[in-house]
Amino acid sequence: MIIRNILSAIAVFAFQLGGEVQAQDINPSREAIKPLWELCVVGGGTYFPDYPAADKNSLRGLALPYIVYRGDILRLGGDSIAKGVFIDNDYTELNVSLEASFNANSDDNDARRGMPDLDYLGEIGPQLKIKLGELYGGKTELQLPVRAVVSTDFRRFDHRGYLFNPRFFYQRQNIFNSAININCSIGSSFATKKLHQYFYRVEPRFATAARPAYEADGGYLGSAITVGLSYGITDRVRGYVGGQAGYYGGAANDGSPLFRQKVNSSVHLGLTWSIFQSDARAGSHR
Q1: So what's the pLDDT on residue 197?
Q2: Total of domains in the chain
Q3: Which CATH number fits the domain that encloses residue 23?
Q4: How do residues 183-221 score in pLDDT, each as one tens digit?
Q5: Which of 12, 10, 15, 21 is CA-nearest to residue 181?
Q6: Mean pLDDT throughout 88-116?
Q7: Residue 19: which domain range?
Q8: Is 156 contained in some domain?
Q9: 5, 131, 183, 221: which could join 19 in a potential S-S bond, CB 3.0 to 4.6 Å?
Q10: How far is CA 125 from CA 138, 149, 165, 199, 263, in A?
Q11: Positive or negative, the Cα torsion across 241, 143, 201, 219?
């Protein structure tokens, strides 16, 4: 149970609050004075769909410590749980990064009742960022992550295929000359058959009169728009609010009985507090 709670907190931080922490690092002229590492506490809550195109959302909230590290190669607490950066210049960045997301209890979901639960998901793989320059005072990027997906209940790990999620990403700091940062993205997701099966397949043994057997195909999964705002309450405390709207019309498996609605939405709230900071400073290269 402790391990599950830790991964849940990591999922909150990386998936919902990671953009807020990254938004604090978008001004290269300020990066040189940032600590090399920070010990922080994150408290967050999220109201999110059980899976893409589900018709039920779940509420989660946790508070746990985490570390921000701004190394030359290894970086923690940015736009992913962790990443290794191999190329980073004015035009491109190439990294290998890790993401995580929540599980879902099938007994609490009418569409999946009687089926196996959806486990925690972890993603790892390379990401190429193409830096497109400034737009309205902020930075823009084309992000091209390709990641392997693994599910786990901490008793076993299962490979669930691969996910490609091209998206345009925008960040701006201190909008309206305030302590407010904004980050937003728009993109689409494409997945191999294995991942689509995990979400949308109905094996004959789980079929009912209202839920016929279904074999899923790979392909287009859906599109999403995300927006996040953070506010510097003090030098060490920031509040965060964000949301995401997903659209799944035309998805490869919109005929599945588990595909329940074309539009999903989620809302995220959080607070980060930097408790300890290193005397060593991060380099000015980022």
Answers
A1: 98
A2: 1
A3: 2.40.230
A4: 999 999 999 999 999 999 999 999 999 999 999 999 999
A5: 21
A6: 92
A7: 2-277
A8: yes
A9: 183
A10: 27, 9, 11, 21, 28
A11: positive
Residue 282 belongs to a domain: no
Residue appearing with tokens 């999946």: 112
Q: Checking phi first, is residue 219 left (phi over 0); if not, alpha (psi -120 to 50) or beta?
A: left
| Residue 194, helix vs strand vs coil | helix
pTM assigned to the model: 0.86
With respect to residue 286, please indicate whether it lies within any of the assigned structural domains.
no
Identity of the residue numbered 89 = N
Please report whether residue 283 resides in a domain: no
Phi, psi angle pair for 254, to nearest 5° = -70, -5
Q: Provide the total of helices (H) and of strands (E) in the chain, helices listed first.
A: 4, 13
What are the backbone angles phi and psi of residue 12, rounded to the nearest 5°? -60, -50
Q: Which two tokens stand for residue 160?
A: 């669930």
